[in-house]
Specification:
The chain is built from 15 helices and ten strands. It has a six-stranded parallel sheet, sandwiched between helices. A four-stranded antiparallel sheet has the order 2-3-1-4, sandwiched between helices. Pathway: Porphyrin-containing compound metabolism; protoporphyrin-IX biosynthesis; 5-aminolevulinate from L-glutamyl-tRNA(Glu): step 1/2.
């Protein structure tokens, strides 16, 4: 039996950052949640995606498990009041709607900055984790490979991924604008995870900036700094560097704010200091803006300006949507075919069982050459007998009328009895 593919989604479209940071899942939490979903509900096609902009669970099941899954997220996060967050989740129980949503998310159509390139890698990592835990069956494998193929088409056939218009690039545009009157602005990047690394690479668009990188693992900061011609400092020197910087970009993962109001109040701020918080959960206290000269931007209020790149991406959306529509049509044709595959296999097995029994009865006393000829002839006959019902079954699938045809063929060839006999 094929179950409905479903999705639950909490994203920047339905929840502000203070809600998203409470619900966001790190890699360990995703791993633990996947195992729970597998053990509690025997799920086979499950994907969990958690980024700074969204936390989503995709799954196949005959029942709507959205409330149970949200409660499990709450359990994993240690939230006793997770039911209070139900209103922020969008529930998609329709096969096509859930699949279409996954395509749009994967292509960057649902991103804060349209066409955000980071999402593709995030989706691939989510899929890899599901596959590693045996939570990806034939359905999810086929679906994800269709998504990845469509993503390649978007890159090759449209301008949707041209240039750099990710959240991290939007942050760099902001830095460039706000430091335009500052000679060689000093920029400190704290954390070189995926977003931090992307910010560092995009800082080439602010060539006058003096960029310093720090990270808990110094070797990682050092390697990136060496590649880009920046300075790297040990994490222990972060506070001193923060005091000297004009711009501080934080993208580290911490359960509590790393940069506090008390810390900022102790800094020497002659004119201004810009803080950019790209972390979810947030790593900078919002109250630092009370300190004179301090400006704070987070992932919700950073917006890419109307650049030529973004305009080209917006103009390409109809092309992207057409590619998605074609991919979904192709996928659903495959899905329909999967519905009749068990019946086709049962029919093949039933006819092969008859052929083998008759071969066994009549070919006891003939030589190998004669047996080979008869084996070849009977196999050819069986293929010809199979051709019409197989074609009719697949045609019935395309008409969304397969159930009746499956029942007729099953009754005609007594396939259930044959299957029981084989078992």
């Amino acid at each position: 039996m094929q179950h409905n593919f479903r999705a639950i989604s909490l994203s920047h479209k339905s929840a502000p950052v203070e809600i998203r940071e409470v619900i966001s899942l790190d890699e360990g939490s995703i791993h633990a949640l996947l195992i729970k979903l597998k053990e509690f509900f025997s799920l086979t096609d499950t994907l969990i995606l958690s980024t700074c902009n969204r936390t989503e669970v995709y799954y196949s099941h005959e029942l709507d498990l959205s409330t149970e899954i949200i409660k499990l997220i709450g359990l994993e996060k240690g939230l006793t009041n997770v039911v209070d967050y139900l209103e922020y989740f969008k529930v998609l129980n329709n096969d096509k709607e859930a699949i279409q949503h996954l395509f749009k998310v994967s292509m960057g159509l649902e991103a804060q900055v349209v066409g955000d390139m980071q999402i593709s890698n995030q989706v691939k990592r989510a899929y890899q984790m599901s596959a590693d835990l045996d939570l990806a069956g034939p359905f999810l494998h086929r679906l994800m490979h269709t998504v990845f193929f469509s993503s390649k088409r978007v890159v090759q056939e449209t301008a949707f991924r041209d240039g750099a218009a990710s959240v991290s690039y939007a942050a760099v545009e902001l830095i460039e604008e706000l430091t335009s009157n500052t000679y060689q602005p000093r920029v400190l990047l704290i954390g070189v995870g995926e977003i931090g690394e992307d910010v560092a690479k995009n800082m080439v668009h602010v060539p006058d900036a003096k960029v310093t990188i720090t990270n808990r693992t110094f070797e990682k900061a050092q390697a990136l700094a060496s590649e880009l011609g920046y300075e790297a400092i040990p994490f222990e020197e972060c506070m001193q560097a923060m005091n000297q910087a004009d711009v501080v970009v934080s993208s580290i993962m911490k359960s509590e704010p790393f940069i506090t109001k008390e810390l900022v109040k102790a800094m020497d701020i002659p004119s201004y200091k810009l803080f950019v918080d790209l972390s979810v959960p947030r790593s900078i206290e919002t109250t630092i803006e009370d300190v004179p000269g301090v400006m704070l931007y987070n992932v919700d209020n950073i917006r890419s300006k109307a650049t030529e790149t973004l305009e080209r991406r917006l103009a390409s959306i109809p092309q992207v949507e057409k590619i998605i529509e074609e991919a979904i049509d192709e996928f659903f044709n495959w899905k329909k075919g999967m519905m009749v595959s068990p019946t086709i296999n049962k029919l093949k097995n039933a006819l092969e069982q008859i052929r083998q029994e008759e071969m066994g009865r009549f070919l006891k006393n003939i030589d190998e050459d004669q047996a080979a000829v008869i084996d070849k002839i009977t196999k050819s006959m069986m293929q010809k007998i199979l051709k019409v019902p197989v074609v009719q079954l697949r045609a019935a699938c395309m008409r969304d009328d397969a159930d009746q045809m499956i029942n007729i063929i099953s009754d005609l060839f007594d396939l259930e009895k044959v299957s029981e006999k084989k078992d």
